[in-house]
Design a protein that fits this description.
This protein is mostly beta strands. It is built from 2 helices and 20 strands.
Length: 280
């Protein structure tokens, strides 16, 4: 098997995994809303009840009446109940009368959010598939993974929070495309180099806000600073906010705007007629 055959096979497996992810009841299309709960008596629409951080961390408490229709562990909440971040502490999923699901989310185990997912969300019902560019070996490109300058940061804005936040750069990705060099700044999330970027397809033939590349820092296909590796731009995926406006995903920084069209990877989520879900 040649390297290009291997890359194409990995891309095909990745596409199948993405299709399975979209079909799941907790697909990005089903995400309805999420909000941090940092004070007692907090409302998180469309979830019923009032929510508060648990003493000592670990999750959230909810106060509700039976008429609110919240069930945790199958038991109807009438009074106070607790919902945890980790299953070892107790129940981690609440269900609501409209069929939606509530879970506790945390980046670091100190600050908790309630996320609401609805398998019957309008976009999930309309969704048929992710439109993608045809696989093209031209977009398997060599790259150097360089150490950034000491203290280098990049300003990231988020979909619902326009004020930029400085985030440490952990690597610079120097791509070679058609004998020209392009540099993208990478941050780190969950042992992965995360590279949100924009190019000249955005808002034309692909989702307007940009896309993202992800490179593992451990496991199969892992990369590290100092490597020279081939990167498959055919695996550029959509930002979560392409699937639901409830996502507050990081947007590509100005440093990661490419002055060329990357005609590779995912374009948009579409309905059965091929109409983009965000075209209304």
């Amino acid at each position: 098997m040649t390297d290009l055959e291997r890359f194409r096979g990995e891309w095909s497996a990745w596409r199948r995994a993405r299709d399975e992810q979209m079909a799941d009841v907790r697909s990005p299309l089903a995400f309805v809303w999420g909000a941090h709960v940092t004070a007692p008596d907090t409302e998180v629409p469309p979830a019923p009840g009032r929510w508060a951080p648990l003493e000592g961390g670990r999750g959230l408490g909810v106060t509700a009446e039976a008429a609110d229709g919240i069930r945790i562990n199958g038991e109807l909440v009438d009074g106070h109940a607790e919902l945890y971040w980790l299953a070892l502490d107790g129940p981690t999923e609440a269900t609501f009368s409209d069929g939606s699901i509530g879970v506790v989310f945390s980046y670091d185990g100190t600050k908790f959010a309630l996320q609401v997912w609805n398998p019957e969300a309008e976009r999930r019902r309309r969704f048929d598939h992710i439109d993608v560019f045809t696989y093209d070996a031209r977009w398997v490109v060599p790259a150097r993974i360089k150490a950034p300058a000491e203290g280098r940061t990049v300003a990231l804005s988020h979909y619902r929070n326009p004020d930029p936040v400085d985030v440490p750069v952990v690597a610079e990705i120097v791509l070679t495309i058609d004998e020209r060099y392009y540099i993208l700044q990478a941050t780190e999330l969950e042992a992965t180099l995360t590279i949100p970027f924009r190019d000249e397809t955005n808002g034309v033939s692909s989702y307007g806000s940009g896309r993202v590349l992800e490179l593992p820092l451990d496991g199969p296909g892992a990369v590290k600073v100092g490597d020279v590796a081939f990167i498959d731009l055919n695996r550029a995926r959509l930002l979560p906010c392409a699937f639901s406006p409830a996502w507050n995903c990081p947007l590509p920084p100005n440093d990661n705007v490419l002055p060329i069209a990357i005609e590779a990877g995912e374009k948009r989520p579409v309905d059965a007629a091929g109409k983009p879900l965000d075209s209304d």
